[in-house]
Amino acid sequence: MKVKIAAVGLAHPFEVGYSEADSLLLTTVKTLKKFGADCESVGVVMHDLETVKLAAERLSATECDVLMICIATWSEDHHLLDLLSYVDKPVILRAYPARDTGSLCCAHQIGAVFTDIGKKYEFIYGYADDAECAERAVKIASPYSLITAMSRVRVGAIGGRVKGMTEIAYDEFAIKEKLGSRVVNIDESEMTERVAEMTDTEAEALLCEKSEILAPCKVTSDRAAMLESIKYYGALRALSDEYALEALSVKCYTKYMGKVCLGYSILAEEGVVASCEGDVTSALAMKMLYELSGKPVNNTDLLYLDEEKNTILFAHCGSSGFSIAGGEIELCPVRLAECGVCSRFVPKTGKVTVLNLCGHGDKFRMAVMVGEAIPSGMEFPGNPTVIKFERPVEDINRDIMAHGIGHHWMVGYGDFSEELARFAEVQNIKFYRP
């Protein structure tokens, strides 16, 4: 996910610094680009209604998620009121240190006006080429870019949810309202019919097509299981293409357990996230972390607390993307069912964000934890991640129960707690840090 910011200048021709407004705007944009933002200047410094209309016209042609107002000097605040009547986007007010330009006092003035009209805004103060300001701008804009990205996501619910897991029943209305995403309900027969239609010869060809990604793996499942699993991958890939899905979930337990796991792993490398057991809401949690990190996400259960080491073991059967493996990948029969093909490996170490989404209606809620994935062995047959936390794990455990947070946790690489907290605030989602 690229953070998309459009920058426009604001200055008054009578004020000191007006002649430098264009340069200030360009330096701000250049610095933001250095720190990963997809930022562009619309090339306008607003100072009258004509320039406001020109800025609005150019802004309308962009696909920005956030509008940055680069305040070069004191200016009449009604220019922004006029701009918002044409282009109403989330706003960052950007002020610059100077004794004689009035940039900062203008920002304060605009902040007061925005507060009175109920327009939310963000604020950054510092020099145009300041690295910390640029990093902060990217962090501020990220939740809004995530809101845009999630509003366009179509998640496939294949076969509904697993019986006995009432907790994961998905609320299509809450998902649309809180995340912006749309659920596409797909009968499991659409998957199984595609599997039945694929011949072994076609499956062999598909395995050959995926040989590069599968070559490093140690294969202990038999050939028949590999052929069946690649057929399921082919079916899921076809459904993803047909319905334009960026996320999906199959009611895998127990009927398709081990049959869709390999497909999940390959899809993860192709940009389609997939969650287990028909947990559609968790598929969207995976998508959020994928957008923020740009890496496959580990779909897990919270399984075991080690109070002495202050760690928690998170794991599931083995369906994560190969690129987060920390060592050997074994393609082997899934645990319990002892059939099919799952991708068994210990994931990489490093800073991780652990995310849970669950609930319905106004009880829709998000929980986020940040910890350090540490070296471990195959603590659980699948993709086990042992995470060390700063907060006592006994307290974390109590808070999870106190807030009814649930048992599925998505693990993404990097610390995105601030972005997710801001996303939850803007989208009016209950937010917890257990």
Structure in words:
With 434 residues, the protein is of the alpha/beta class. It folds into two domains: 4-150, Rossmann fold (3-Layer(aba) Sandwich); 152-432, L-fucose Isomerase, Chain A, domain 3 (Alpha-Beta Barrel), CATH 3.20.14. The protein is 38% helix and 24% strand. It has helices at 21-34, 49-60, 78-86, 103-117, 131-151, 172-179, 188-197, 200-209, 211-214, 223-242, 261-269, 280-293, 393-402, 417-426, and strands at 4-10, 38-46, 66-71, 91-95, 121-125, 154-158, 182-186, 218-219, 247-250, 273-275, 298-306, 311-315, 330-332, 342-344, 350-358, 365-374, 385-388, 408-413, 430-432. The protein has a six-stranded antiparallel beta barrel with strand order 11-12-17-16-15-18. It has a five-stranded parallel sheet with strand order 2-1-3-4-5, sandwiched between helices. Helix 2 packs parallel to helix 3, helix 5 crosses helix 14 (417-426) and helix 7 packs across helix 10. The longest helix has 21 residues, at 131-151. The radius of gyration is 25 Å and the shape is elongated. The model has no long low-confidence stretch (mean pLDDT 96).
